[in-house]
């Protein structure tokens, strides 16, 4: 019996390697934040595909780990004090992994908080707005005759891209060096352009700094690996 056996989620997704961090996710803009992070920091982990298209996050096992029913979530057998730690919310997981390993988050307090503000910028603005734009542009929302919701999210997504464009002017990364701020944002900007197909809608082709930053990020081997973990079965 491992320490993880006490967690109901392991009954639905058994841990073959209970000594490793367990990742429960799906390759969405939110999900790939954590898989990219784990690939970047080189921490051994075991990924489990939680198929959101089949509503697997709403089963009792997953809800026991994240009552909000959203991916990603982790179960770390070697948490604080050597005790297992269950954690959900991608932003919280990024901060936890950065602090656990001492990677991708500046140690200097001022620069640390500056990095975190851009992580929260993604969590509170970019993710929700880009996601809503995707719904009204590509998915069921496109059938709604009233186009005011689409225009609202289009305009706000374009504005947010402008904020990123200003931040990245003359920079390779959101901070002076690659950090969890970039990890948090890369999947969402890629998703907006490639998955949602909304690049023309938000004037993406008129930008310079953001597309160059995205290309740099997508060229990183860890990012390439993380974008397809766990694989879509």
TrEMBL record:
Pfam family, one: GST_N
Keyword Membrane in record: no
SUPFAM superfamilies noted in UniProt: GST C-terminal domain-like, Thioredoxin-like
InterPro entries, sorted: Glutathione-S-Trfase_C-like, Glutathione-S-Trfase_C_sf, Glutathione_S-Trfase, Glutathione_S-Trfase_N, Thioredoxin-like_sf
A GO MF label: transferase activity
Domain GST C-terminal: 108-233
Residues of the GST N-terminal domain: 18-105
UniProtKB keywords: Transferase
PROSITE patterns: GST_CTER (PS50405), GST_NTER (PS50404)
Protein name, per record: Glutathione S-transferase
